Amino acid sequence: MNESETRAELIDEALRKAGWGVLPESRIRREYPITAGRIQSGGVRSKPLSADYLLVYRGRNLAIIEAKSVKKEVGEGVAQAKLYAEKMVLDFTYAS
User: Fold this and answer.
1) pTM of the model
2) Which DSSP category does 10 fall into?
3) pLDDT digits (tens, 9 = 90+) for 5-14
């Protein structure tokens, strides 16, 4: 199962069961842009950073979720999720 399948079949379902995107004022933002990408020589930007999921409640950003393929170790997404949360000044991150 690749990353997009993991998201569609496992993570999205788990978030729905937990009430995210279902309960009033809860929202799931997918592929949430964090940075536009570093400007490199020639004015070209590197790949932008985006979180797989951002959980929002009552208009407040709460947590980042970083998804990985089931073939990868969970720890592979932890550092990435922490970096994104740090850039967004969030206290909570999850890796799956």
Assistant:
1) 0.85
2) I
3) 889 899 999 9
- 21, 28 Cβ separation under 8 angstroms: yes
Q: Per 3-state DSSP, what percentage of the chain is helix, strand, and coil (rounded to 5)?
A: 35, 30, 35
Residue type, 72: K
List of the chain residues with pLDDT < 70: 74
Q: In Å, how far from its chain's centre is CA 5?
A: 15
Closest by Cα among 71, 54, 72 to 63: 54
Q: Give the span between the Cα atoms of 92 and 81, in whole angstroms.
A: 9
What torsion do the CA atoms of 16, 21, 26, 31 make, to the nearest 10 degrees? Answer: 100
